[in-house]
Specification:
Layout (H helix, E strand, L loop, with lengths): L1 E4 H6 L1 H9 L4 E5 L2 E6 L5 H14 L7 H13 L1
Parallel strand pairs: 1-2
Antiparallel strand pairs: 2-3
Function: Antitoxin component of a type II toxin-antitoxin (TA) system.
Organism: Floridaenema fluviatile BLCC-F154
InterPro entries: Antitoxin_Phd/YefM (IPR006442), YefM-like_sf (IPR036165)
Amino acid sequence: MSKITVEEASQNLQAILEKVAKGEEVTLLQSGKPVARIVPPISKEQWLSEMDKFRASIQLKGEPMSQTVIKLRQEDRY
């Protein structure tokens, strides 16, 4: 991963885009602090795979929202 200043990036945009196209990540620095990352795009298959992993990592607690809504509606009627 390369780190360059915003000023360098504005002068060498084409070279940066070529690096990113080859799969490299580039971090832009302003006043020595990271302000942005330029990363290559991911394919639809990679994105879906990452979303599946994320969804599988979620641990739900309590009852389903539909049951909660039904219960609250019934309590409100009586």
